[in-house]
Amino acid sequence: MPPREGTYGLLAEFDTPSDLVRAAQKARHDGWRRMDCYTPYPVEEAAEAIGFHRNKVPLVTLIGGLIGLCAMFSLETWISTLAYPLNIGGRPTYSWPAFVVPAYEWTILWAGLSAAFGMLALNGLPSLYHPLFNAPNFRNGASNDKFFLCLEALDPKFDLVETKAYLKTLDAVSVVEVEY
Amino acid sequence: MAHESHTKTLPASLNAPSFVDGWFSKSLVVGAIATVAALILAFLGQSQDGLGWEHFYRAWVLGLALTFGFAVGGLALLMVQYCSGGKWGLLLRRPLEAMSRTLPLIFVYFLVMGFFFTKKLFLWAKYPDAASTESALKGGLITELQAHCLNFKRPMLSPEMFWIVCLLCFAIWALYTWRLNKLGALRDTQPADTTPMWIKKLENISGPGLVVYALTMTAVIIYWVMSMDITWFSSVYGLLFLVGQGYQVLALSIIVAIALSKEEPFKTLLRQTEQHDMGKFLFAFVMLNIYLAFGQFLIIWSGNLPEEIPWYLDRIRGHWGIIITLDFIFHWLIPFSLLLSRDIKRNKKRIVRVCQWMIFAKAFDLFWLIEPNFKDAARNLHFSWGILEYAALPVAMTAFWFAYFSKQLKTRALVQTNDPHLAEILEPEHAHA
Question: Which entry of A174, B95, B348, B380 is 20 to 30 Å from A39 by CA?
């Protein structure tokens, strides 16, 4: 794929989460869809405001957890009954109470790993480059104390001049153009 | 930027809404119906197998343990939130205070058991000295193991010590209830600059209070529930009840908070964020509860010692296996699976359903703990009218308790005003990380 060129989008900066949420709600209401919010900490309402939809991470986590549970429980059963049966205090070789703890631990382990890696995979992370880091105010503020709304050029409504004026009406502190 | 503020304003009246009076009268009606049912069941059971009243006494202990969990567990959670802080604590503070103020009713329930039922329920009350134990052993009424345990445990398990310890514990809880409730009311009458002092002061009372609570609660639960089987011992027993009280109290608090949120002031105060937080907290109790319960089982199962294992065999064999399996499903699997879901925790109607289920599951667990202690039921689950007593009498006792609780809830404003969290709760949900 040839490198992309041109404008990635317009980045509006806000000082407070309330302003960001308000602007994002307005933009969505006005028909914008290709947009994203960037905040230093999770702001649930901002995600809702831009129409955040469900993702597959919970499903990946559940499947991972069940795989871990089945894998460990089967492993223990196989070892204790077939591979290396031992008489421990006269108990049956299939003594499920003893299997519960490792099986549970593996459920947690696999669910946790599936959640973490599933999240990264579905996020597209790790990503070595993102155009927004071209904006100096984003570089300095996005993980600190600034709140950003980016309207992306892929949106059919996007027009460099009109969109810039539109973002100004949302009371942004600043609006900058971001190149790919 | 000239935007209007998102901050909500504090409702003019902070008193409990008028429908709380409805709770009072409704629970009295439920209590009356359940009492009649309990009496009918006792007579039916008596004519069926002569154990109707026995089951009445046992079900009384279940009701006592359950309502005791709400009242003194409420006091404990009140102390926890003073130590931990947090906005959920501010929301639940007044409901928890109201729960702790129901202690007199628990005391009455306890006195009834102490005066009239102990001889029927506990071997140590029936055979309070070495001579009576000896003759009971000769008469074949108790086993040698039971006789040995009776004699060995007599320094603690005797009628005199029962009264001394229980009355002392009630006095200690009453002291904490009185002190925390008095200071909680006084705090609201003082100006805002006293807030740091109050936070520190209440934390300093509550911290040691929690340690005292853990010890007193364990002692009382050993007398009331554990000593029905004189031969058994488990060092995690008190802790199991402690976590169980957190489980039931938090479930009830969520139900109450959401029910109150139909009208002001909780309509404004209960945000989804705090509801979600309480749901997560509840989930933690569900986990801790099964962790301890299964841990105890696994250790005793692994040891397989003749001193310990009969307690479990009494509760597994003879169809009790069905009950313990259901107990596991009701008590852990269902709340665990449901509370995993973020949507359920954030949905008022659904989380209330989960909480109601959990309170039922707690009572079901107590049934499994109490009934197999007795010779007629151990390793022999069988239906009788008396078994239904466990459904009727605890409902009656809990309904009367709830009536008392809702009366207490009406006596104070529903939220503490002298607290910095109040301003935060009025802010929009996205304002804080």
Answer: B348
